[in-house]
């Protein structure tokens, strides 16, 4: 499914720029054109890049307060009106979720926009394909801890690669994990390139509240987290998917932990060339 382009509106020069230790948005030689409607949605333009235990980016106040409230309200509406469609995300994993493609267009559609895709790909320094997976995830109280994984996994999408300004999202004719559901279906195998978690619609978080995203320096089960990212509303953590981008849900949450989880993708050939095909984690 190709997501349509939003209507044309006046453009504003805006981007999020990477520097040592901090990412700053503003006018620069490295600026990128973005529509004014998109620029107006964003909050803080100061995003922090951290190098340990692997490169990742953390940001607070991602969206302007009014738009964040709309996102949180839409999450609550989805939980209320589509509770029966929140399905278990994976075996031995505590979260339930629903893909954004199963919801009607609304403020959450920003996560499937080309503008958001291109900004996140630019921050990550990844040449992404325009293919996007995005879901709402919710962990009930006292969910079990997850296991370290790196998300360097295949993802299949129908049809040809999106053109400039387009985004392709999952559709029923193709299983994102295994490929076409029929012999007459044309599909492409990509690999996850960027993971992003945006936290929203959570109770106020305090230390000891659990539910963080744990980042690890190694991938063994039972490894101790090197860093914990708290689920503060209107914040995000994102990172390039590599053989060492080990992360997991930390568990022990005293309240529901809610977020948008999304992935950008890259051609499989790029991953094979960079790390070897054996580093792709099969489902």
Structural commentary:
- This protein has 283 residues and is of the alpha+beta class.
- The protein has helices at 36-39, 65-81, 114-124, 268-275, and strands at 2-3, 11-13, 16-18, 23-25, 33-35, 46-50, 56-59, 87-88, 96-99, 132-139, 154-158, 167-168, 174-175, 179-180, 187-199, 213-215, 227-229, 235-240, 247-249, 257-267.
- The protein has a single domain, classed as Sandwich (Jelly Rolls), CATH 2.60.120.620.
- 14% of the residues lie in helices and 31% in strands.
- The protein is globular.
- The two termini are 23 Å apart.
- Mean pLDDT is 90; it is low at 4-15 and 17-31.
Main sheet attributes: strand count, strand direction, barrel closure = 11 strands, antiparallel
User: What is the CA-CA span between the terminal residues?
Assistant: 23 Å
- What is the C-alpha radius of gyration, as a whole number of Å? 18 Å
Order of SSEs: EEEEEHEEHEEHEEEEEEEEEEEH
Instruction: Estimate nothing, just give the exact number of structural domains.
Output: 1
What's the overall average pLDDT, rounded? 90
| Structural class category | alpha+beta
Residues in helices, as a percent range: 10-25%
Number of helices: 4
CATH topology-level fold name: Jelly Rolls
CATH superfamily: q2cbj1_9rhob like domain
Examine the secondary-structure arrangement and name the CATH architecture. Answer: Sandwich
What is the molecular shape?
globular
Text of the CATH class: Mainly Beta
Unreliable stretches covering 5 or more consecutive residues: 4-15, 17-31
